[in-house]
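Summary: Need help interpreting a holo structure output

Steps to reproduce:
1. Submit the protein chain below together with the SMILES for fe (ii) ion.
2. Request a joint structure prediction with the ligand placed.
3. Inspect the structure token block that comes back.

Expected: a single structure record containing both the chain and the bound molecule.
Actual: see attached output.

Input attached:
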Amino acid sequence: MSESTSTSGNPFSAAPDGDQSNKAKTFSPNVQELRQRARKDVEEGAVTKGYPAEKEAIIKMLDSALATELVCVLRYRKHYYMAKGIDSEPVAQEFLEHANEELAHADKLAVRIAQLGGEPDLNPKTLLERSHSEYIEADNLKDMINENLVAERIAIDSYRAMIDFIGGSDPTTRRILEEILEVEEEHADELADLISK
Ligand SMILES: [Fe+2]
Ligand SMILES: [Fe+2]
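--- attached output ---
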């Protein structure tokens, strides 16, 4: 016969009547309220009542980052196809690799925007206006590398500002932006190396 193990390990259940050994301090949140809160506004998905950040401002900010990434995908890809000259092959490969990584960043941002209840804006008509970086084609390898380095430096500064803006209010979005920033810094470093060669 087991007598005293039925309530151990479950912080939500009260000690049964007559069980004097379990009257000590217990973790006992208002489960009823938690359940009601979770059930209410269930269409908000991952955004619970506990989400403290300015949701609309964060979605708008992520949207400008998404536009920036997509413009970078297009510029890098254009440069990949247009890179010519004796030393162009490794540089073109670098452009292609960066283009694919920028696309992965765009996907991460779009997923987070949707998670927060927003709608990722992929309208090509307004892409450039919403982007922080520019779409400049350049007509030789050196200018292409330079344009991409400028765009990376813009991205680095804008991701830093976004991370600053978020502070501690939305750790998940902050982590996504920090991961992207790390890759943008690597991109800038690689392009700076190519220029110095
Ligand atoms: Fe990126
Ligand atoms: Fe980049």
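--- end attachment ---

Reviewer comment: Confidence is low (pLDDT under 50) at residues 1-20. DSSP finds six helices and no strands in the chain.
Status: needs-info
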